[in-house]
Specification:
By secondary structure, this protein is an alpha/beta fold. The protein has 3 domains: 3-240, Glutamine Phosphoribosylpyrophosphate, subunit 1, domain 1; 251-436, Glucose-6-phosphate isomerase like protein, domain 1 (Rossmann fold, 3-Layer(aba) Sandwich), CATH 3.40.50; 447-590, Glucose-6-phosphate isomerase like protein, domain 1 (Rossmann fold, 3-Layer(aba) Sandwich). The chain has 19 helices and 26 strands. The mean pLDDT is 93. The protein binds 5-amino-5-deoxy-1-O-phosphono-D-mannitol.
């Protein structure tokens, strides 16, 4: 949720921290702060607002510190104010703490510390840690942090700086992600790799209940009971260019345009010469006797899972159900050792999905993670992982990871149907031939951009927008509505088109925009009938269609956004593209903060 970064080196810490915080801002962006060791003294700067506001405050100040920590926040405990911004200090301003996650027993700890005379100055759970470390410090910062996290309950990643140990930053992790890295003469700690691209030459992902410190000599990792941890580090392979806008106005637009590549890369590693399905190592351990599949996921990832729920019905002889991860534990889903659970998550860190994975495994299910980030918590807690290869996604609204998830799930479905001995060779090779053409068709689908930009001007005045579709395109209607809501703040709903007459039709008034995904297929004529119903109520029909020249469609639709002809896995991916562009251009036209929409964060690590 929040972004944390720490630096120990020989260069100036403040510019590095500010630059890194900008790279981490997608994790949270309601306040920001840094703490430095300046001439042996701990100094702190923080404020509500974006990193650029903090940078503005610091502008011109020549800090010579080479050790410091920085934080960008997504508020959980306490509203986003200067006072609640991190870093938080102990009573004497000698210890600074930045934190991602939630200290669940903060109230009990706070009461105890206040009774002992500690004075708090914020409403956050994090400040408890600063006072707790202060109360436990007797000359060894690492030991004090170890004891403090031994008392803390909940999920956290922390970095702690102390004036009394000015050459180091102590870190600890439980639940929330944390990575340490090093390069010649410098060491780093961060909640995510993008902050370290182009800086660290190698990184190490921390596991739960590990802690340690970074110094000029690099990093040292220990278990909670003090045993040294030695794992082979990872080379940093991603290019820093991946986290630049590359000439686009927003990351979201860049990421929409990257989809031919991200879908192509996701497919490529699972196909031999683009046409033959390769064995996926993660699927080799699946017991062919599985008799039920559940997908667990949140938000956009849930929509991808829902597409798979539809697609897999025709390739697998067992039922598959997509359940919103936060609901999964509350339901009595029938789980046995013959249940296969697919956890879908771009970040691999979403706590609701992680909890669903834990719950499924504890009940004996075999869990496969489909993740975009390697080494994530969801991957670690699953039996095996398959990857989407979308590259780093910075825009808070998921785009390229969504289409990559559909592509990967499509192939996983085909592979599982082989495990089951159910795949018809002819059908799967037809699907694979279609997929080979998909990247080119995505490029073609993007040509609708100018038309969408013009149409967006009309939609910007809407207060409600309906998205209707049938079959495997229904989840795309849900996703189109979610995208529009997330970044333009216009109320939007996705419905199966057949449901319209059972309620949502009441919303349709003169000029109400109704976006209908009209794919040539078994449900096409029924969708045209639904279009008639919208027209009869004077709704404004926008048809997204692979039959743009059909005279019936031309007669009924006020606007048509064409989509290249396709079928199977390709179709939901191609229908997504105009909807992503529409949400983007409506938001641009309204002047919202497209890449960092209000109240949202890229990775949701609280339940
Ligand atoms: O990282 P995950 O895929 O697990 O994230 C799941 C959702 O939080 C995410 O898709 C969210 O709905 C995005 N804001 C969608 O744009």
């Amino acid at each position: 949720m929040c972004g944390i970064v720490g630096y120990v080196g020989s260069e100036l810490a403040a510019p590095f921290l500010l630059e890194s915080l900008k790279r981490l801002e997608y994790r949270g962006y309601d306040s920001a702060g840094i703490a430095l060791i300046e001439d042996g003294k701990l100094v702190r700067f923080r404020r509500a607002g974006k990193v650029r506001d903090l940078e503005h405050d610091l502008h011109g100040a020549a800090y010579s510190a080479t050790v410091g920590i920085g934080h960008t926040r997504w508020a959980t405990h306490g509203v986003p104010t200067d006072r609640n911004a991190h870093p938080h200090l102990d009573c004497h301003g000698r210890i600074a703490v930045i934190h991602n996650g939630i200290i669940e027993n903060h109230a009990v700890l706070r009461e105890r510390l206040e009774n002992d005379g500690h004075v708090f100055s914020s409403e956050t759970d994090t400040e408890v840690l600063a006072h707790l470390v202060e109360s436990l410090y007797d000359g060894d910062l690492l030991d004090a942090v170890r004891k403090a996290i031994g008392q803390a309950q909940g999920a956290f990643a922390v970095a702690i700086l102390s004036q009394d140990a000015p050459d180091r930053i102590v870190f600890a992790k439980r639940g929330s992600p944390l990575v340490v890295g090093r390069s010649e003469g410098a060491a780093y700690v961060s909640s995510d790799v993008p902050a370290l691209l182009g800086k660290a030459s190698e990184v190490q992902f921390l596991l739960d209940d590990e802690l340690g410190e970074i110094t000029l000599d690099g990093y040292r990792i220990l278990t909670l009971d003090g045993r040294p941890v030695h794992r082979a580090p990872h080379r940093v392979s991603a290019d820093p260019v991946a986290i630049q806008k590359g000439g686009y106005k927003h990351f979201m637009l860049k990421e929409i345009h990257e989809q031919a590549r991200s879908v192509g890369e996701t497919l490529r590693e699972k196909l031999d010469q683009g046409t033959r399905l390769l064995g996926m190592p993660a699927l080799e351990q699946v017991d062919p006797d599985f008799d039920h599949i559940y997908f667990v996921a949140c938000g956009t990832a849930h929509h991808a899972a829902k597409v798979a729920e539809y697609l897999w019905e025709s390739v697998l002889p067992v039922p598959a159900h997509a359940i919103i991860a936060s609901e999964f534990r509350l339901r009595n889903a029938h789980i046995t050792p013959r249940t296969l659970v697919i956890a879908v998550s771009q970040s691999g860190e979403t706590i609701d999905t992680l909890m669903a994975v834990r719950s499924a495994r504890s009940r004996g299910a075999h869990v496969i993670a489909l993740v975009n980030a390697e080494q994530s918590a969801i991957e670690r807690e699953s039996n095996a992982a398959v990857y989407t290869r979308a590259g780093i996604e910075i825009g808070v609204a998921a785009t390229k990871t969504f289409t990559a998830q559909i592509a990967a799930l499509g192939l996983i479905g085909l592979a599982l149907s082989r495990v089951k001995g159910a795949a018809s060779e002819a059908e799967s090779s037809r699907e694979l031939r279609e997929l080979a053409l998909l990247p080119g068709r995505i490029v073609e689908a993007l040509r609708v951009e100018d038309k969408v930009r013009t149409l967006a001007e009309r939609l910007r005045h809407a207060s409600d927008v309906l998205f209707l579709a049938r079959g495997a395109l229904f989840p795309i209607a849900l996703e189109g509505a979610l995208k529009l809501k997330e970044i333009s703040y216009i109320h939007a709903e996705g419905y199966p088109a057949g449901e319209m007459k059972h309620g949502p039709i009441a919303l349709i008034d003169e000029g109400t925009p109704v976006i209908m995904l009209a794919s040539r297929g078994p449900a096409y004529d029924k969708l045209l009938s639904n279009m008639e119903e919208v027209k009869a109520r004077k709704g404004f029909v926008i048809a997204v269609s692979d039959a743009p020249e059909d005279p019936n469609l031309v007669r009924l639709a006020d606007e048509i956004l064409p989509v290249p002809t396709s079928s199977g896995i390709s179709s939901p991916i191609l229908f997504t593209i105009p909807l992503q562009l529409l949400a983007y251009y409506v938001a641009v036209s309204l002047g919202t903060d497209v890449d960092q929409p209000r109240n949202l964060a890229k990775t949701v690590t609280v339940e």
